[in-house]
Design goal:
CATH topology of the largest domain: Tachylectin-2, Chain A
Distance between the termini: 16 Å
Pfam family, one: Glyco_hydro_32N
Radius of gyration: 23 Å
Bound molecules: beta-D-fructofuranose
Keywords: Glycosidase, Hydrolase
Family: Belongs to the glycosyl hydrolase 32 family.
Largest sheet: 7 strands, antiparallel
Number of helices: 2
Protein name: Levanase
Organism: Microbacterium arabinogalactanolyticum
């Protein structure tokens, strides 16, 4: 359910495009090994965003250039002239990063066989600012009061600046505006995305979401992605709230308070460089991110027989909703169809009171979806402290704790033998101290490791972490007063059941 190539290194998702009934996922890929290098675009496709087929490398590095991150669009009216008679092309836009690390500019390639083979454009680069850190172009079609044209958002990474350009043919680009530095600036800005969504589905209240990944300087440490909600008039992005702090005067680092004033796509450590698909209806906004962190991605141990590093998060459907006076990004995981694993081992019905100190355990399949919903048994005003203990064959590997309205994930217990940057605790405040409700996807597909993706506060808070060992069982423990459990269940993907 989490895509990973059969071998070798993978990082950012690239060129996400839905075309001819298929989701195409390209990604930063090293065809030669399990470390970052020789960057090329790997390729996988899926009909449902869950089961992926890996294909041969789509766009390969050359002796001069690596192919860094970027996007892909269907050039329906062949504005680029790169199609053939009757076949408009898919056009990929990416960063040509010179092998010596001194120069980055944007190039394009086209495909007339539905995204399987690509031809590099002879006039590359198409956009060059003479910069060493100008990268990660995300292109979309803008159609609004200002006109109808292609827009590119990219970054001047070191300057913590998003730069916007427009084009009529994907080849000649003119400058529109830029955004930043602003908000979180503790690391280079990378992999931006900009897209519209209607607030609570209201077509008269459309906002634009600007995603900015940064590394390091994320809320959980290392790589992270902030988002800003605002307006885009075809030229300039203007945030709704002047709120997020401007860049600090002395250096780029931000205080904890400054980071907490920003909105984050994910509060865990392993959700980076997430971008959305093109080619879907405007309200069908689907994101995939890289499930790792530059702090330790290159040090994760590999299986000697089949060296591989890196995986994607689950695909997530995005929407906007007003919560407590603010417009927040809501995420819904797109996982496999599931079947209850063990709906209720003791046959009793929910809700059930769980005494202080008592435990409800669930054995897990290699992949599972957990759902939990609980209140303090003493009613409003009583404290609520609960833990989900993820266990491997030897003991506890990670603990998800909900107490005093805050959610934290401590993966230090299972981090022995891994990079020192891996052992960490993440924490995020949730909206309601007296209710804990979450959906959690667990996957052990990595060699020797697991991952948890937590969606809480109705999808307004996501927390994604790799964990150091394989998870075989999860316990729900009332660590404070008695609690009233309304739901505690595990479901497993039907495909996993079929294989068992
Ligand atoms: C983000 C990133 C991008 C770059 C790519 C290189 O993780 O650093 O800015 O294009 O990875 O692989």
């Amino acid at each position: 359910m989490h895509f990973r190539p059969a071998r070798n290194w993978m990082n950012d998702p690239n060129g996400l495009v839905f075309h001819d009934g298929r989701y195409h996922l390209y990604y930063q890929y090293n065809p030669n090994g399990a470390d970052h290098g020789f960057m090329s675009w790997g390729h996988a496709t899926s009909a449902d965003l869950v089961d992926w087929d890996e294909h041969p490398v789509a766009i390969r590095h050359t002796d001069e250039h690596e192919i860094f991150s970027g996007s892909a669009v269907f050039d329906e009216h062949d504005s680029s002239g790169l199609g053939t008679e009757g076949t408009p092309p898919l056009v990929a836009v990416f960063t040509l990063a010179d092998q010596r690390g001194r120069h980055q500019a944007q190039g394009i390639a086209s495909s007339t066989d539905g995204g399987f083979t690509w031809t590099s454009y002879a006039g590359n680069p198409v956009l060059d600012r003479g910069s060493s850190d100008f990268r990660d172009p995300k292109v979309f079609r803008y159609s609004g009061p200002a006109g109808d044209y292609w827009v590119m958002v990219a970054v001047e990474a070191q300057e913590r600046r998003v730069v916007l350009y427009r084009s009529d043919d994907l080849k000649a680009w003119t400058y529109l505006s830029d955004y930043g530095p602003r908000g979180a600036t503790g690391g280079v800005w990378e992999c931006p995305d900009l897209f519209p969504l209607a607030v609570d589905g209201d077509p008269d209240d459309v906002r634009w979401v600007l995603l900015i990944s940064l590394n390091p300087g994320g809320i959980a440490g290392g790589s992270g992605t902030q988002y800003v909600v605002g307006r885009f008039d075809g030229v300039r992005f203007v945030p709704d709230e002047p709120g997020p702090p401007a860049a600090p005067r002395d250096g780029w680092d931000c205080s904890r308070a400054q980071l907490e004033a920003c909105d984050w796509l994910d509060y865990g450590r392993d959700c980076y460089a997430g971008v959305t698909f093109s080619g879907l209806a405007s309200e069908d906004r689907v994101l995939i991110a890289w499930m790792s962190n530059w702090d330790y991605a290159g040090q994760l141990p590999v299986d000697a027989e089949r060296p591989q590093r890196g995986a994607m998060t689950l695909a997530r459907r995005l929407s906007l909703s007003r919560r407590g006076g603010r417009v927040r990004l809501i995420q819904e995981a797109i996982g496999p169809a599931t079947t209850p694993l063990d709906p209720d081992p003791r046959g009793s019905t929910w809700p059930r009171e769980v005494a202080a100190g008592a435990t409800l355990a669930l054995d897990l399949a290699p992949q599972a979806r957990l759902r939990v919903r609980l209140h303090p048994a003493g009613g409003a005003g009583a404290g609520l402290a609960a833990e989900l203990r993820f266990r491997d064959a030897r003991g506890v590997s990670a603990v998800l704790r909900f107490a005093d309205g805050a959610l934290s994930l401590d993966r230090r217990p299972g981090a022995a033998g891994l990079s020192s940057a891996f052992g960490s605790v993440q924490r995020v405040q949730l909206a309601e101290p007296g209710l804990f409700e979450a959906e959690i996807w667990v996957d052990n597909a990595d060699s020797g490791r697991g991952s948890v993706e937590v969606f809480a506060d109705g999808g307004a808070v996501a927390l994604t972490d790799l964990v150091g060992t394989r998870i075989t069982c999860v316990e729900l423990v009332a660590v404070g007063d008695a609690m009233l459990v309304e739901e505690w269940s595990a479901e497993i993907p039907r495909t996993v059941l079929a294989e068992a």
